[in-house]
Specification:
The complex is a heterodimer. Chain A is mainly β. Helices cover 0% and strands 49% of the residues of chain A. In chain A, the strands form 2 sheets. In chain A, strands 2, 4, 5, 6, 9, 10 and 11 form a 7-stranded mixed sheet that branches. In chain A, strands 1-3-8-7 form a 4-stranded antiparallel sheet, with no helix packed on it. Chain B starts with a strand and ends with a strand. In chain B, the strands form 2 sheets. In chain B, strands 2, 4, 5, 6, 9, 10 and 11 form a 7-stranded mixed sheet that branches. Chain B has a 4-stranded antiparallel sheet with strand order 1-3-8-7, with no helix packed on it. Chain B is globular. Helices cover 0% and strands 51% of the residues of chain B. Chain B contains no helices and 11 strands. By secondary structure, chain B is mainly beta. The chains are: A mainly beta, B mainly beta. At the A-B interface, strand 5 and strand 10 of A face strand 5, strand 9 and strand 10 of B.
Chain lengths: 111, 117
Amino acid sequence: DIVMTQTPLSSPVTLGQPASISCRSSQSLVHSDGNTYLSWLQQRPGQPPRLLIYKISNRFSGVPDRFSGSGAGTDFTLKISRVEAEDVGVYYCMQATQWYTFGQGTKLEIK
Amino acid sequence: QVQLVQSGAEVKKPGASVKVSCKASGYTFTSYDINWVRQATGQGLEWMGWMNPNSGNTGYAQKFQGRVTMTRNTSISTAYMELSSLRSEDTAVYYCARGNPLTPDYWGQGTLVTVSS
């Protein structure tokens, strides 16, 4: 199974400041079809997960442009350019190149 | 708009089975996979398996093979996940999510399943 490892597991951030979350996979996420199925999900308290980013860097419909994704192969990053209060929650990376596996989650909180 | 609406909370005894439904609307049900993911209280997300609503083909995570069954009723655009031989560790919120493909783009609201004697 592909193991997804996120760092940090907790990220206290000041409002208006940037935030960054890393995700590393135990093997390459390049699919046989040439795509890399690495997504980022946000889960606000008491809510279901919500798709933010798919195939490394594509923002899903309605996602603010302060969210961006980057990376390749086994190393990926989610960045929030300026954190807002509504961004509080847990962020998960997820791979679907070989079945589905999730990272442990990173809790974003406001300082 | 795309919506996945799940059935309500369940309380089951150890050893029993539970069947959770996921009703899709706003798109052609048979054109996208349905995945099932669960989350124990305060824990992370755990993928259970997927189903192709068109063919009925399924794929289950090894951890759940032999205990989980995913089915569908295309006439009412509804997917089902049945988990058997329940134990206390199965207490969790169960989510369905549309696969577009290999990208879980829309999620149900979740169904809490509590296993308790």
